[in-house]
UniProtKB/TrEMBL annotation:
Protein name, UniProt field: Glycerol operon regulatory protein
PROSITE patterns, alphabetized: HTH_ICLR (PS51077), ICLR_ED (PS51078)
Function of the protein: May be an activator protein for the gylABX operon.
IclR-ED domain span: 78-258
GO biological process: glycerol metabolic process; negative regulation of DNA-templated transcription
Domain HTH iclR-type: from-to ranges: 8-69
Lineage: Bacteria, Bacillati, Actinomycetota, Actinomycetes, Kitasatosporales
Annotated keywords: Activator, DNA-binding, Glycerol metabolism, Transcription, Transcription regulation
Species this protein is from: Streptomyces buecherae
Listed Pfam families: HTH_IclR (PF09339), IclR_C (PF01614)
InterPro entries, alphabetized: ArsR-like_HTH, GAF-like_dom_sf, HTH_MetabolicPath_Reg, Tscrpt_reg_IclR_C, Tscrpt_reg_IclR_N, WH-like_DNA-bd_sf, WH_DNA-bd_sf
Recorded GO MF terms: DNA binding; DNA-binding transcription factor activity
Length: 258
């Protein structure tokens, strides 16, 4: 039976196209046509299909193509996973612990270390703040990443297409103020990147606010996040901005040891 009944040649051409793109900044339809030895119309349909699934994208002029967000996101994820494997969770916690303690002392609030695990953020460690009214560490807990400051700080490092594909069923609402849908999450993550830190305003627990910053290893890969959590009465937008430099200092100090 002809293998092409199963689309084998089409799959092969798609894979050859992606490998070809991987070695170049951009390509034209005619480049792909000549590389594969197929008609220009066939190359155009192939690129259009790959673009529809996020594997390639068109550059602004619309005449050239480059690798898309799905593949770039997978590559980023692989690098991040390999980085975490090299470090190890126990080693990460060991390295981060004294910096979390210093962050707690400087902010006088609970500090935490979180790491992405698929669609969730896992609380790896935490140091409780000194106030009688304080937020308890949630070490060992797992929450949807978009409901936590640390999770959003890490999601903001990923291509949007990767984030979108992480939540194919949409977003679960933990509180009335949890980010409501993917469009709102995209805007929120853009705001995180713009100001340099992520916020959690009553999004996982009512009356609890948080601020988070990503931790990058020596290769620049975001492998975790540090956060400060406090009752909403003590952590508004103004204080969050004041605390951001402390978080950046802690994150950079941890990253320098990874």
């Amino acid at each position: 039976m002809d293998d092409d009944v199963y689309g084998a040649s089409s799959v092969a051409n798609a894979l050859r196209t992606l490998v070809y793109l991987g070695g170049r900044d951009t390509v034209r339809v005619t480049d792909v046509s000549e590389h594969l030895g197929v008609a220009r119309s066939t190359a155009h349909r192939l690129l259009s299909t790959l673009r529809g699934h996020g594997f390639v994208e068109q550059v602004p002029d619309g005449r050239q193509y480059r690798l898309g967000p799905v593949l770039l996101g997978l590559a980023h994820g692989r690098v991040a996973v390999e980085s975490r494997r090299r470090i190890g969770t126990r080693e990460l916690v060991r390295i981060a612990r004294p910096h979390l303690e210093r962050l707690r002392d400087a902010a006088a609030e609970t500090s935490n270390l979180l790491q992405l695990d698929g669609p969730d953020a896992v609380f790896l460690d935490g140091v409780e703040g000194p106030h009688p009214l304080r937020v308890a560490p949630r070490t060992g807990d797992r929450l949807p990443a978009y409901t936590t400051a640390g999770g959003k700080a890490q999601l903001a490092e990923l291509p949007w297409e990767t984030v979108r594909m992480t939540y194919p069923q949409g977003l679960e609402q933990l509180t009335p103020t949890t980010v409501r849908d993917l469009a709102a999450l995209e805007q929120d993550l853009a705001a995180c990147r713009g100001r340099g830190y992520a916020l959690n305003i009553d999004e996982s627990v009512t009356d609890v606010h948080g601020i988070g910053v990503g931790v990058r290893d020596r290769d620049g890969v975001c492998v975790a996040a540090v956060t400060i959590s406090a009752p909403s009465t003590r952590l508004g937008a103004t204080r969050a901005a004041d605390l951001a430099p402390l978080l950046h200092t802690a994150a950079e100090a941890i990253g320098a040891e990874l």
